[in-house]
Every structure is written in structure tokens, then in C-alpha cells.
Specification:
8 helices; alpha+beta; single chain; 329 residues
Length: 329
Amino acid sequence: MLTADRGDAGRRIDLVLRRHLSGIDAATRHRVQVWIEAGRVSVNGRLVTRTSARAAAGDVIAILLPADAPRPPIAAEALPLQILYEDALLLVVSKPAGLVVHPTHAHASGTLMNALLWHARDWPPAARPSLVGRLDKLTSGLVVVAKGPAAHAALQRAWTSPSTSKDYLALVHGRVTPRTGRIDLALRRDPGDRRRVIACARSGVPSATLYERLGRGAQLSLLRCRLLTGRTHQIRVHLAASGWPVVADAVYGPTRRRPAADEPALAEALERLSGHALHAWRLRLPHPASGALLHVEAPLPPGLLGALFAAGIDPAPLLQIFAAAPAGL
């Protein structure tokens, strides 16, 4: 049994449970959703069977954990790990495209979590790493990691602060206009394929993304995006639905959009991308202990840099303009 706090207010029940059960290996998001749908969760004494139900601060949430054996422990593996910031409560790492963040049936090892457990092998027992937010396998950039349940809860609360922001860079097809804007499109799971997300005004969850065009070439544009809501695949779906699919996105990007035959250098550069051209770039977060603003930036991957230059977009002057955030984003 647990009590929802301010950091849980308005969040989906499955995400609230996943947050509070982060120390239980068996409590993956999928399993938590299965438990909810099976009638194992109640809120204030009333059974809840919809994973999309929302929590309010002060809600008393009870969960009956199944008696089946927990998942095998995740193995610590000596894998490369690019740490951009670390202190007693948290660390921020830069994840390369192609790396899965957490073990699954299809990826039982070789994940970011396996690498984090190796890094944490000398930590105190209570300081087990847990992820605060995730990135898709083919998205590169910043991932925040808490050192234990207390730090995880504190970071979740900090994440709701108005001072918190996370900016992404996206290289997209098309000459994006207007230069700045807001995309408001409700999203839902594709009923024909649960791995996909679609825009659906009638039954979707409200979702909003801010964007700014930083530069453009003959065929591609570089955007900076900021999430106002955090839905699965939100940036990719919003941009694709607006007519600007992320380059090399095999799920939401139409395959017919390829560089013209007279631009072999661009075609070759895009072939060298190790994932789709979406990068979790900059984070601003009030530190959960001191309240001081923490600023972290993930360097652009070489493949993305090469694609920008090949597209005729010089990133050097563009990336310097964000010492102070532009108005509206």
C-alpha cells in the first residue's frame, strides 16, 4: 500500500505504481499494466482496472502483488558508459542510439541498465540505480538516473517543477514553416499495432509539443523540440503528423522520402546514422536536494553531425544561440 504525493498528481496509475515500485525487478511497466487490468489494484478502496486512470495527491493505492517468482536479477556488465554528471543522489548519462535502456525478453543483456549496475557495483545496497524517464532504443541523448528509491521520488517531484525543461534536436524531412510553433494533437495507441502511437482527436490523450526551426537545407530541417506533455513517441508522431517526419524513422517516416539522386553525399551521410535523427540534447532541472538549477548537455553524435553538414546545415552557430533560451520555448 502507498500514498500518492504531489509528484503523482494527474499521472497515470501505471506510471505512479512503476515509480513507487522501482526497486522491484518484477514491476516492469508492462507487468504493472497487466496487474491493473487483472483487478489487483485499488485506489481509496475502489478497484481500478484502467491503466489510464489518473491519481490525485493523497490517494491511497493498494496493490496485490502476484505470488509468481520474480524476474531473474539484472546482471551487471562492464559496458561503455558516458557519464555527463554525477553526485550523491543522481547521475546523467548520454545514451547512444541503438542501445536499449532496460532489459526485455528480446534484449536480456547489453542494456543501459546492465551498464549502470556495473557502475554501481560499489555503491551502498540502498543506492541501486533506477531510470527517471526513458528513451527509445534508436533515440540518443540524455537519461537521468536516480541512486535509490528516495532519490527517484525526489527527482520525480523535481520533474514537475516549472523550472524543468528538456530539449530535443530533430532532423526532419521538409522545409518547416512557420519557424516556431506548437503542435497540439491528441495521441493514443494504434489499435492495430500496440507498438505504434497515432494522432486521434476523438479518443486520444491531449499532447503538446513546442518546436523551433534552427536551420534548413534543400530537403531537410533541424528543429529544436520541447515536450509540454510526455507521451510515448510524442515528438516522432507529432512531427510526422505535421508533415515533417524524423529522418531515418522507420516506424513513422515514409520510406519514399529519400535524398535526390543528385545528392549522393547526403544519402551516404544518412546511411551512416545509427538510429533515427532525434537526440535528447539539453536538460535543465532543479536539483532535488539543493534546488539549484542543474544544466546538462549531451554532445551531438558524430552521425547526426555528419548528416547536418551533408544537408547544408552548419550546426555550430545554431547551437550557440541557446546560452539563453529563446522566448516561447
